[in-house]
């Protein structure tokens, strides 16, 4: 996974075409990039993010941010109770407890 200015890029290699191609993920807009070498794909990713930001500025629109930190979640009443109890037993708010749990579960991602 590639990172630049808060945006993430996912890259795949097309063996048949002998080219790397990627996409900026986490956006509703489609932003893609490609290159033949690792250096080219890195530069293409950064150029695509910069082009996206410039395009938004030209339109007078705020660029979409990949993640705001807000996350809506629906739980069953029983699971909600269990989360509440676990958080209280840890002396934390539900939000803090869930952040800690999710951070632990995703420690090996990216």
Which structural class do the helices and strands define?
A: alpha+beta
The largest sheet is:
4 strands, antiparallel
Strand order of the largest sheet: 1-2-3-4
Q: H/E series, N to C?
A: EEEEHHH
Number of helices in the DSSP assignment: 3
Describe this structure in words.
The chain is α+β, with helices and mostly antiparallel strands and 110 residues long. It has two domains: 2-59, no CATH class; 71-110. 43% of the residues lie in helices and 20% in strands. The chain has three helices and four strands. A hairpin with a 4-residue loop joins β2 and β3. 10% of the residues are buried. The mean pLDDT is 92.
Q: What's a concise summary of this model?
A:
By secondary structure, the protein is an alpha+beta fold. The chain is built from 3 helices and 4 strands, in the order ββββααα.
What is the element layout, followed by pairings?
Elements: E1 2-4, E2 7-14, E3 19-25, E4 32-35, H1 38-59, H2 77-89, H3 94-105
Antiparallel strand pairs: 1-2, 2-3, 3-4
Features:
2 domains, alpha+beta, single chain, 20% strand, 110 residues
């Amino acid at each position: 996974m590639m990172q630049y200015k808060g945006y993430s890029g996912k890259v795949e290699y097309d063996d048949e075409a002998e080219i790397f191609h990627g996409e900026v993920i986490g956006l509703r807009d489609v932003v893609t990039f490609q290159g033949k070498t690792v250096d080219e794909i890195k530069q293409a990713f950064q150029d695509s993010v910069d082009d996206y930001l410039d395009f938004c500025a030209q339109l007078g629109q705020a660029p979409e941010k990949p993640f705001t930190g807000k996350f809506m979640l629906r739980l069953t009443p029983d699971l909600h109770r269990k989360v509440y109890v676990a958080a209280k037993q840890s002396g934390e708010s539900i939000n803090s407890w869930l952040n800690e749990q999710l951070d632990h579960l995703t420690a090996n991602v990216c």
